[in-house]
Design a protein that fits this description.
homodimer, 233 residues, alpha/beta, Rossmann fold, N-(1-d-carboxylethyl)-l-norvaline Dehydrogenase, domain 2, binds NADP nicotinamide-adenine-dinucleotide phosphate, DUF2520 domain-containing protein (chains A, B), 6-PGluconate_DH-like_C_sf (chains A, B), DUF2520 (chains A, B), TM1727-like_C_sf (chains A, B)
């Protein structure tokens, strides 16, 4: 039996609490991060609050082992005087949407080996992809996630804009988008690269630029150059 | 019964020929684009050759209705003196990889209504997503595809590079990549946007930039700006 306290009532806290609640060997409780009185003493205390509040909230907790759930905050940011760790799930959580924890990568860190073992045990009750990732690695992962998630979504948005402007249904592009993301499961992205940039197809590139707005052109040019530079390394 | 001739022996020609070969109501034949002698006379002649060769190859064909398969070449580029059209499939074809035509969007164009009907009939024997797309729309679609496919793959590549540099397995990011691409099936990309740029989280953005190489920084900055500008429109 592992006893767990979830601190917070946001997206991550809610999903985590509900998930642990259904696990036999876990005894989970949850409290608001706004009212830190009568804190249950548990094996693991998971602070799932906004990044900026992690330091303050953790400073008020005396439980033996305290972890946060942030991808961008270092373990040392925790201000509890007891043992520290990180329980970061690399996935987007929104309250409305069900989470399939089996697909969520758990990125774990702890000051002490035994604590890392506890976090692994905990993560394994929910998921299959468990990684030991230190604070520096986690920061890198977070930046990489901005590229493959936030920026990729913005490229979808630009594609959507171009379709709107030229009166084409965006859904024509759905299968291509799916194929592009499926490919990296079996092929390193550098090997999956196609298109006018890597073919150095100057004529098509020039044609494309005439169809774009100023900011779209800038993005088109810099990404084209970056693709071409990646060939010469 | 529709009689079809596929001209070319490349990726698209091979997949198309094989697919039509299995359809009862289609009588398909194939010839090389290098040797245009004894050309079978068919209802539809599909020229599936490199973009640059479409004009030349089509100029040598006297069949009644000739179409090409290119996303970036206009219908008028065809040099046959008979009827013209386009049979563009928005998907990546490589010889090794099986194509699920049921998922392929067919983008059709023809000078004459009756020819468009024939192309639709033809496309429907293979697929479910059939669109009438004129040459200007197709050009826009092709540019949009560069953003959502080629450029997106390059962002995956940058994510992969960042992981390599910081010794993190790229596969930690696989589920996030899948989720990002699945989201646009149900949500317009502008509504799916998350991350530090749209939150205007200057602290995180600054932190991220310190972890990146020069060209990665440039891309990070321009995409961040573009995301933020999209809020103000
Ligand atoms: N959402 C995701 O997709 C995701 C994914 C991976 C990791 N994370 C990380 O998980 C943590 C929580 O994220 P979330 O999405 O669950 O956030 P959220 O839904 O915005 O919830 C934030 C929680 O923090 C509390 N809080 C905010 N400021 C506070 C303060 N000054 N003092 C005390 N409590 C405060 C909020 O309480 P009130 O409701 O009372 O304001 C709320 O319970 C963050 O570190 C985040 O980086 C999030
Ligand atoms: N591949 C895709 O993902 C894809 C997707 C949608 C649309 N398309 C379009 O489909 C068409 C064919 O593409 P593909 O990928 O099938 O090309 P491919 O595999 O490179 O095959 C090109 C074909 O064109 C022939 N060819 C090249 N130059 C020629 C010339 N000067 N004279 C006569 N024949 C010539 C080649 O003959 P040799 O083998 O004898 O050189 C070969 O049969 C293009 O318009 C392309 O834009 C391709």
């Amino acid at each position: 039996m592992i006893t767990v306290l979830v601190v917070g009532t946001g997206n991550v806290a809610t999903h985590l609490y509900n998930a642990f609640f259904n696990i036999d060997n876990i005894n989970v409780s949850q409290i608001s991060s706004r009212n830190l009185k009568n804190i249950p003493n548990t094996d693991v205390t998971i602070i799932a609050v906004s990044d900026d509040a992690i330091a303050e909230v953790s400073s008020k907790i005396n439980n033996p082992f305290v972890v946060h759930t942030s991808g961008s905050i270092s373990m040392k940011n925790l201000q509890n005087s007891t043992r520290k760790g990180v329980f970061y799930m690399l996935q987007t959580f929104t309250k409305e949407k069900k989470v399939d924890f089996k697909k969520v990568p758990f990125c774990l860190e702890a000051e002490h080996k035994d604590d890392l073992k506890i976090l692994k045990k905990l993560a394994k009750t929910l998921g299959n992809s468990i990684y030991t990732i230190d604070s520096n690695q986690r920061k890198a992962l977070h930046v990489a996630a901005v590229f493959v998630n936030n920026f990729t979504n913005h490229l979808y948005k630009i594609g959507h804009d171009i379709c709107l402007t030229h009166n084409v249904p965006f859904k024509v592009l759905h299968p291509l988008i799916q194929e592009t993301s499926n490919k990296i499961m079996s092929l390193p992205p550098i090997k999956a690269q196609t298109g006018p940039a890597i073919r150095n197809d100057t004529k098509t590139i020039k044609n494309h630029l005439t169809l774009l707005e100023e900011q779209q052109q800038k993005i088109y040019k810099i990404l084209t150059k970056s693709i071409q530079d990646s060939l010469n390394r």
